[in-house]
Amino acid sequence: MASITRLGKADKKGVTLRQRLERHEERSGITPDDLLPPDVPPAGEHLWQWFWELEKGRTGNGYGPSPFSWSDIDAWARLHGERPRPWELAILRAMDAERLRVSSDSTGKSKSGQAMQPAKYSNIVSGFRMLMGKQPKNVEAGSASG
Fold it and tell me: What is the pTM of this model?
């Protein structure tokens, strides 16, 4: 699988990659890898969900997506009644940095016109797994608040 799949990007006929893959799945009965959900560690499921909730409110500066600010994260946490611990904040920020990295091309220019699709970016998933391996040993799996 390609490290970055743009399932929401339409071709010249207005058909997205997601639509083409779903048609293939219907015809063949085989689900393409790009349509499978990521393998998120159970201890990180809440972080994966938090990240994509934050992503829905992401702003941009006209040149592409802006990184999550501390104010963005704080507002989201207060609105959702969450109290992220320092290690969770570090992972969210690292996931954000990876999301921004994969959304820009080799020249550093943003590909802001292309929709991000949760669960389809192996670089983010790989980075997430690596970061989850660095969580404190005393953290309970799936515990979302401190």
Answer: 0.58
